[in-house]
Design brief:
The chain is of the alpha/beta class. The chain is built from eight helices and eight strands. Strands 1, 2, 3, 4, 5, 6, 7 and 8 form an eight-stranded mixed beta sheet that branches. The two termini are 37 Å apart.
Length: 203
C-alpha cells in the first residue's frame, strides 16, 4: 500500500481495531478517511452538515452542488419513485394538483440519514408558491427539533409563501431566512455573490 494509506490504516487500527480499520477502507475513499481523522483529532467528530435537494430541471441541483462543495458537506438528492411528465403544460397542472391537495410522492431510498446531522441545507424549486411535494415528503421523515436549517429555493421570480411553509414544516428547528435564487430559462439571474454571502453565514 502507498505510504499515506498505511499511515491512515495504522491510525485507525490503534484507535479502534483491525476489523474496524479494514471495514472503513472497504467503504470510504482515502480523502474521506482523511477528513474523518482530521475532524476526530479536532475533537468535533465527523462533519455534521448535509445539503439535500430536489431538482427537476437541474437548476436546484447545480446550486446544491456548489453549496456542498463550498461547505465540504455531504450532498443528497431527493428522487421520486414515479417520474414526472416531460410535457410542460401537463407538469404544471399535475404540480398544482399535488401542492393544493397536500400530496406527498413516494421517494427513493436516501443516501444519508438526515436525523444524524446537526445542520441541514434544503434546496427546492418553487412549485405553486411553495416547496416541491418531494421535499415535503422528505421533511416528514426527519426529527427537526434542535437542528439548524438553511433553506434555499430556485424560482422564476415568485417565492410565494415558501418561507412561512418551511417554518411550519420544520417546527423545533432553527430556520434561517430562505435564500431565493432566480432563474430565467435555465440561466441564473441572482448574483452568485448573493449566494456566496448566504452560504458564508452557515455555521
Amino acid at each position: 500500500m502507498p505510504r499515506g494509506v498505511i499511515a491512515y490504516f495504522l491510525y485507525i487500527y490503534k484507535k479502534m481495531s483491525f476489523q474496524a480499520a479494514f471495514f472503513l477502507f472497504s467503504i470510504f475513499t482515502i480523502s474521506q478517511i482523511h477528513d474523518i481523522i482530521i475532524s476526530e483529532q479536532l475533537g468535533g467528530g465527523v462533519m455534521k452538515k448535509l445539503v439535500v435537494y430536489y431538482s427537476l430541471s437541474g437548476n436546484t441541483r447545480a446550486v446544491a452542488k456548489r453549496i456542498a462543495q463550498t461547505l465540504r458537506a455531504d450532498l443528497m438528492e431527493i428522487r421520486t419513485i414515479k417520474t414526472y411528465p416531460d410535457d410542460y403544460d401537463v407538469l404544471v397542472g399535475l404540480g398544482e394538483k399535488e401542492v393544493k391537495s397536500g400530496y406527498m410522492p413516494q421517494i427513493a431510498p436516501l443516501t444519508y440519514d438526515a436525523n444524524e446531522y446537526d445542520t441541514i441545507i434544503i434546496g427546492t424549486p418553487v412549485w405553486w408558491y411553495t416547496y416541491a411535494p418531494a421535499v415535503k415528503k422528505f421533511m416528514s421523515t426527519v426529527r427537526w427539533k434542535g437542528k439548524k436549517v438553511y433553506p434555499f429555493t430556485t424560482n422564476g421570480g415568485e417565492l410565494g409563501h415558501t418561507p412561512s411553509d418551511f417554518r411550519k414544516a420544520l417546527r423545533g428547528a432553527v430556520v434561517s431566512p430562505v435564500l431565493s435564487i432566480r432563474f430565467n430559462e435555465g440561466v441564473q439571474v441572482t448574483e452568485e455573490s448573493d449566494v456566496k454571502e448566504w452560504v458564508a453565514e452557515i455555521k
